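Hi all, posting the design record for the shared folder.

TITLE: backbone redesign
STEP: 1 of 1
STRUCTURE INPUT:
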């Protein structure tokens, strides 16, 4: 690179930083003027620092997750719309240094999973709340990336179906069936565990969303997971509660917050992750900020984490939420970790 090219590059970056004096300076002024040279050195130092921060950011998040006995990590905190700073819904439940459970796999969570430092070999359970694309679209990408890292059974839990939506079992067949699936290249993942295919074996369980009491879906190695059907328009949907190492986490997922059984389900949880996808008070599919606050307050949770954030004035929504919720509150962000205690 010539000296002129380098100066042009610094000038462009100075424009990005808002330094109009450097932008308007000639090449000779930047190179030869002693103050300009000092500015150039300072800019180089600034760039190096920025790059170092960017390089370390994902590893810092991962270390903060792995440093607690139990923690929740948000892979994606965005709601259904577009957002350049957030990806679609997804969560990890960490125990120590292992991400043991993933809840939902919306668009972008495949990349966030890697940035979090999670290992596919550590997963004990995959859980899907419902079959909207912003909660499931990265499932094939995750399976494709991790399929050869293990050849054991990996349970995957999801809702039963209705006349308009397939069950989790039918959904997986439509994706991965070796003869008729959309991703037939992943057909081996649907083979019985007795067949040695050299890849991970998915073992689906469909939970009846019409049951009024929680259903136990996982109980192994000190981690117990239960699921409860919740109202989300006409889409079968599940909330999940995880109990491990003496603490509990509840993932509300998408719901209106109008099922009183959910308050019982979430009561006493150390952390409640609840979706705040709308600021409207009459949505047929999502809880309003006021309802989110009332549910968390009624359930007496230790901490409320709001995620799946919609396209609205977040400050105003939080202010509305705080009218009915007085406990600790965390506003979710991608790769954010919350220790559970």
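Okay, here is what came back for every position:
SEQUENCE:
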């Amino acid at each position: 690179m010539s000296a002129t090219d380098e100066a042009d590059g610094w000038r462009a970056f100075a424009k990005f930083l808002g330094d109009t004096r450097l932008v308007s300076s000639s090449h000779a002024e930047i190179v030869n003027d002693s103050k300009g040279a000092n500015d150039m050195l300072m800019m180089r130092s600034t760039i190096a620092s920025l790059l170092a921060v960017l390089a370390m950011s994902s590893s810092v998040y991962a270390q903060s997750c792995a440093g607690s006995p139990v923690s929740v990590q948000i892979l994606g905190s965005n709601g259904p719309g577009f957002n350049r700073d957030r990806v679609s819904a997804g969560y990890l439940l960490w125990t120590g240094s292992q991400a043991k459970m993933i809840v939902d796999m919306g668009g972008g969570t495949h990349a966030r999973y890697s940035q979090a430092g999670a290992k596919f070999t550590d997963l004990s359970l995959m859980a899907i709340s419902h079959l909207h694309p912003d909660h499931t679209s990265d499932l094939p990408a995750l399976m494709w990336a991790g399929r050869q890292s293990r050849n054991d059974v990996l349970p995957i839990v999801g809702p039963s179906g209705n006349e308009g939506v397939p069950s989790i079992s039918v959904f997986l067949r439509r994706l991965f069936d070796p003869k008729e699936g959309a991703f037939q290249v992943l057909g081996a993942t649907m083979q019985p565990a007795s067949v040695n295919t050299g890849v991970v074996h998915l073992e689906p369980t469909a939970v009846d969303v019409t049951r009024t009491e929680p259903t136990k879906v996982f109980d192994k190695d000190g981690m117990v997971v239960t699921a409860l059907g919740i109202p989300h328009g006409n889409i079968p949907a599940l909330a999940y509660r995880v109990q491990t190492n003496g603490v509990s986490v509840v993932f509300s997922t998408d719901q209106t917050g109008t099922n009183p059984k959910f308050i019982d389900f979430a009561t006493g949880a150390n952390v409640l992750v609840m979706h705040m996808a709308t600021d409207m008070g009459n949505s047929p599919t999502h809880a309003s900020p006021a309802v989110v606050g009332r549910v968390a307050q009624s359930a007496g949770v230790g901490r409320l984490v709001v995620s799946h954030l919609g396209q609205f004035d977040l400050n105003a929504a939080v202010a509305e939420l705080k009218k009915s919720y007085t406990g600790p509150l965390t506003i979710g962000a991608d790769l954010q970790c919350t220790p559970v205690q």
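COMMENT: The chain has two domains: 3-55, 67-339.
Let me know if anyone wants the other runs.
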